[in-house]
Amino acid sequence: MPINYEDNIYEVIRNRERCINCRVCERQCANLVHKYSAETGEMVSDSMTCVDCQRCVSLCPTKALKIIKNINTYRDNANWSESAIKSLYKQAESGGVLLSSMGTPEPYPVYWDKILINASQVTNPSIDPLREPMETRVSLSRRPQNVERDGEGNIVNTIKNALTLSVPIMFSAMSYGSISYNAHKSLAIAAKKLGIFYNTGEGGLHRDFYEYGANTIVQVASGRFGVYKDYLDAGAAVEIKMGQGAKPGIGGHLPGEKIVDDVSKTRMIPKGTDAISPAPHHDIYSIEDLRQLVFSLKEATNYTKPVIVKIAAVHNIAAIASGIARSGADIIAIDGFRGGTGAAPTRIRDNVGIPVELALACVDTRLREEGIRNDIALVVGGSIRNSADIVKAVALGADAVYIATGALLALGCHLCRSCHLGKCNWGIATQNPELVKRLNPETGSVRLINLVTAWKHEIEEMMGGMGINSIEALRGNRLMLRGIGLTNKELEILGIYHAGE
Amino acid sequence: MKKEGQIRIPSGCAISGIINKDGRRIDGSGISKSIAVMHDRSNGLGGGFAGYGIYPEYKDYYAFHIFFTDAEAKRQCETFIESHFDIINQSELPTKKIPEITDEPLIWRYFVTPRPAKLLESQLDEEEYTLRCVFVMNTRYSGVFVFSSGKNMGVFKAVGFPEDVARFYRLDEYAGYSWIAHGRYPTNTPGWWGGAHPFAILDFSVVHNGEISSYDANRRFIEMFGYKCTLQTDTEVITYIWDYLVRRKKLTLTEAAEVIAAPFWEKINAMPDKDRERLTYLRTAYPSLLVTGPFSIIVGFKGGLLALNDRLKLRSMVAAEKNQTVYIASEECAIREIESSFDKVWAPVGGEPVLVRLNGDLS
Amino acid sequence: MKKIYVQEEWCLKCRLCEYVCAYANSGCENIVFALKNRPISPRITVEDDGKICFAVSCRHCDDPSCLKGCISGAISKADGVVRIDKNKCVGCLTCVLSCPYGAISVGPEGTATKCELCIGNAGGTPMCVRFCPNRAIICE
Lengths: 501, 363, 140
Description:
The structure holds three protein chains of three kinds.
Chain A (H helix, E strand, L loop, with lengths): L9 E5 L9 H5 L5 E4 L4 E4 L9 H5 L5 E5 L12 H13 L4 E2 L14 E3 L20 E3 L22 E3 L3 E3 L9 H14 L3 E2 L16 E5 L8 H6 L2 E5 L10 E3 L6 H7 L7 E3 L9 H14 L6 E6 L4 H9 L5 E5 L8 E2 H6 L4 H14 L7 E5 L5 H10 L3 E4 L1 H6 L22 H4 L4 H25 L15 E3 L4 H7 L2 E2 L3
Parallel strand pairs in A: 9-19, 10-11, 11-12, 12-15, 15-16, 16-18, 18-19, 20-21
Antiparallel strand pairs in A: 1-4, 2-3, 5-17, 6-20, 7-8, 13-14
Helix pairs in contact in A: 4-14, 8-10, 11-14
Chain B lengths: L10 E10 L5 E2 L1 H9 L9 E6 L9 E7 L2 H14 E8 L13 E9 L1 H7 L3 H15 L3 E5 L4 E6 L3 H7 L6 E2 L1 E9 L12 E3 L2 E6 L5 H8 L11 H15 L4 H8 L4 H5 L3 H13 L10 E6 L2 E6 L8 E5 L2 E5 L2 H5 L7 E3 L7 E4 L6
Antiparallel strand pairs in B: 1-10, 1-16, 2-9, 3-8, 3-10, 4-6, 4-7, 5-6, 11-12, 12-13, 13-14, 14-18, 15-16, 15-17
Helix pairs in contact in B: 6-7
Chain C lengths: L3 E3 L9 H9 L6 H5 L9 E4 L4 E4 L8 H5 L5 E4 L2 E4 L9 H5 L6 E2 L5 E2 L13 H5 L5 E3 L1
Antiparallel strand pairs in C: 1-8, 2-3, 4-5, 6-7
């Protein structure tokens, strides 16, 4: 037998004093880490297969478990890090492309953390959101160039298909297939109750969820899975997915084992076949082709729904966004390179694309330079982690944000980044019925609602502090931001001053 | 130290306005007395006035009031004016040396009309052509600032207390049917006269009290459409918003007020269909022109005045009426100083504009 | 009075309910002392036939068979809760036999025990409801 180069990344530590052998950990681990030994009357753990999802830790009634990093140490090497070596071993063993899930864990700069928010002192009163009205409602749509009036001179409301959100947050695209039925249901219920939108992702829309259509964005991706007339008609908006922040330039691949009964029906592909989304849309090889698809979808939906074009944040994003703004699309969604994924080649996830903060700033600036920023709404996603990130995104110029990783965390995800293995112990990124049932949408949706409600309160507090009582007065209000520890170039791209200036 | 325009300076202020609906013209001494009462609301770092109907003999020509830092700036700017406009009259703006006002720049006045060939070539209407020329002068040439560019109206402003500014510009020698005034309390030394108020573009002039929290959202929006916020003041951006909505987008003044101080959604949703549709449209079409934070403004325009408070009414503003005259001021005392009894006095509700126009076409 | 319901759709058969029940009724303050190296006698048990699973505990029947059959008068029902007075219980186990749900068992002291909705314990929500990770046990 060849040498096994793999070693475990994590180690399960069991406090024998506290363990009562209840075997809850054993029953809850789909990776078969824990086992009861009848012989010794004790629990034993095999850390080799542990993915550090924390399910056992969370459910252990006596808090007898913890998972730590395996302290087995390779010789220190600043160039050849342990993870670099292990990745290499893995490929020498398998001959395959490395796969990863969720957003990149690499230590790239997080610009949100280098931006500070302003508050009023003396010259301008702060506003208490508990006493005064505070508005977080936003409308996403194209905005008209000219005011139209009827015969009597009254203004005609020509904006008929705006997406109206109670708070500038939407759940971004995660397909049914990559996440479970119950995860989708949780998102749908929460979106409806919150007055916001969730996004089907590219896997079609399960029949059961058509009732949430008024709060659903249906996605059309390069694989066109599950796209047909009823699907387009079901949603409140149609999103063309051109790219994804975690894997710009490549398509998607949902392995056959995840294409179970309902997933196959919803995607309209045979059971057990791999669902492969091509890297490009094969009817879009340039910007003028995109315009055709935008208008095809508008024709198909009788011009009743806004069309969103979602793109990954790449180097020439500003020019691309400018082209999209002129394509007839109503909304541009930009997905930053720290955004999540159900599965992506590791090297692409960790090396391709740019941070969403810079993408947002340069797109907003460019669209303003061209005088077309008001024509289109801008939504950004790709690692929005809290309400302060949202305030900063809006002040940089976003109309709203997309959250996905954050939403999954609310549903229990512990970011073990093993979605591609299909054995999600939290019932989120799996199609195994035994695991799927672990996510009760009744509790899941409540947690999502709690999260967005809490963020709404915090956004209101921060707006109030700045003396702003409506979110539209925050949008693009970059004077409310200051950079901290940023270079002149970074400040120039972000279009903000340094703290102290 | 940076001068105004290079940095943003928040200010507190006093404002006052008078209009005779019957078109009767009064000199600038009344408005000067009115604003002087609110002396403590300004700190001597800025004061100014705008009068409407003051140049009846040149009413068809744009009256440019321009600050020049030196003769070279003046020469360059005049070359530009001559190539784009026919100059009907040019002169130094009459002033009076007083110890309270110092460091004055060169202050000149030009009555002009666009050169027909240039106008035709530009494919713009006369007003847009003139506005763009004003922005060119204000941004291309250092040491040049066109601070008044309307017809039959003029702005007079300086660093100093407003009552001294009135004496400096000899406002008692002008007669207008409406006047607005401003006393400024900047939190920083402006460094020059450009940042004093009123702020004006074409026929619109604005005086403003408060610090708007939406400033950069408003500025970055309006700058998409050819406006240049060279002074980084709230009043400047508010002036451009009025010009954009009313002149460019052809909204009525009331509709423009509904954009700038839009009612809360909760209120809009409870309105009758017609109003709800209009306001929903306006808020959705021009979200970036909502102005938040405290403000009371008086907007002067050809043939009228409009006063508006922010929707929470975070700044004081009082209005009063006596016969054909309407008064608006930050404090009631400023009105009582010049009129002892009123037919009516009231505090306008936040977000609801007070619009006063001349009776008939008297402008 | 509220009752405990199970939603079998959401039962994960993790059996946490059994352990927290045993702890709640152990009288011990510390869960480890209460449960470690001891036989536990939970008043709720997870039934699992491989296809369907759910937790079973006393239904607090409208007309309880256990109460009718009790020879010592140890079982009573008040405010919708069926309770057993262990001081009166003689351990004949008639109740265990007569309960149609199998919800009564023999406790560590040889007397019959069953779910009493944690009313004698720390109060509020029954422990099995509080600790069910998937809202499969609810008290309404």
